[in-house]
Amino acid sequence: MSVEIMAAGVDTELVIDLTAWDSFADMKAELEKNLHAIDNYLMGSFISIDVGSKSISERQLREMEDILLDHGFHFKDLINNHSAQGQNRISINKNNAEILDSADTVLICRNLRSGQKIFNKGNMVILGDVNPGAEVIAGGNILVMGALRGLAHAGALGDEKAIIAAFRLSPTQLRIANHITRPPDGESIVVNNPELAKIRAGKVVIEKLKI
């Protein structure tokens, strides 16, 4: 298993080494293999991926992030020394993730712009909008007291009873546990009522929120 675990205080960083594989297909297969081998108690951790000197496209980065999410993990950095300046850490998002280590409900009193990512082990309430390109990830429920137009992942540690609710639910992608839904490409959804997303019969369903 090519996984390096680095502890810094109470934080644990996982790094998966994919430098020995040349093709992207082989890298994805090795990534899957390593994720299956990681102990369950580390589920929900942020993982960095070391690809050495290989060039990785934005689409390939997104594919690897999707693989991590499918296994209950979250992407942190791409470690890459493709540039002439030597080794770099490149995040999919320009800003680092804001990690809130609380099992309780946290309150975020601001709008989230593109590139911002927030993770909390418990529930999350956002008094503001989640704009396209922003991501909110919670081990519990997510409530957005505004417009949800970015990505939201509730039950990120495997809780299929988690919900996502928003006053205006128009996300680029919704995830609950390992279940995913997104609007069809090119389709714009206009919502005028508060809505709630939850798992029913193994699928993410959206219904009106009665308040």
From TrEMBL:
<keyword id="KW-0717">Septation</keyword>
<keyword id="KW-0132">Cell division</keyword>
<dbReference type="InterPro" id="IPR016098">
    <property type="entry name" value="CAP/MinC_C"/>
</dbReference>
<dbReference type="Pfam" id="PF03775">
    <property type="entry name" value="MinC_C"/>
</dbReference>
<dbReference type="InterPro" id="IPR013033">
    <property type="entry name" value="MinC"/>
</dbReference>
<keyword id="KW-0131">Cell cycle</keyword>
<protein>
    <recommendedName>
        <fullName>Probable septum site-determining protein MinC</fullName>
    </recommendedName>
</protein>
<dbReference type="InterPro" id="IPR005526">
    <property type="entry name" value="Septum_form_inhib_MinC_C"/>
</dbReference>
<dbReference type="GO" id="GO:0000902">
    <property type="term" value="P:cell morphogenesis"/>
</dbReference>
<comment type="subunit">
    <text>Interacts with MinD and FtsZ.</text>
</comment>
<dbReference type="GO" id="GO:1901891">
    <property type="term" value="P:regulation of cell septum assembly"/>
</dbReference>
<comment type="function">
    <text>Cell division inhibitor that blocks the formation of polar Z ring septums. Rapidly oscillates between the poles of the cell to destabilize FtsZ filaments that have formed before they mature into polar Z rings. Prevents FtsZ polymerization.</text>
</comment>
<comment type="similarity">
    <text>Belongs to the MinC family.</text>
</comment>
<dbReference type="InterPro" id="IPR036145">
    <property type="entry name" value="MinC_C_sf"/>
</dbReference>
<feature type="domain" description="Septum formation inhibitor MinC C-terminal">
    <location>
        <begin position="108"/>
        <end position="206"/>
    </location>
</feature>
<dbReference type="GO" id="GO:0000917">
    <property type="term" value="P:division septum assembly"/>
</dbReference>
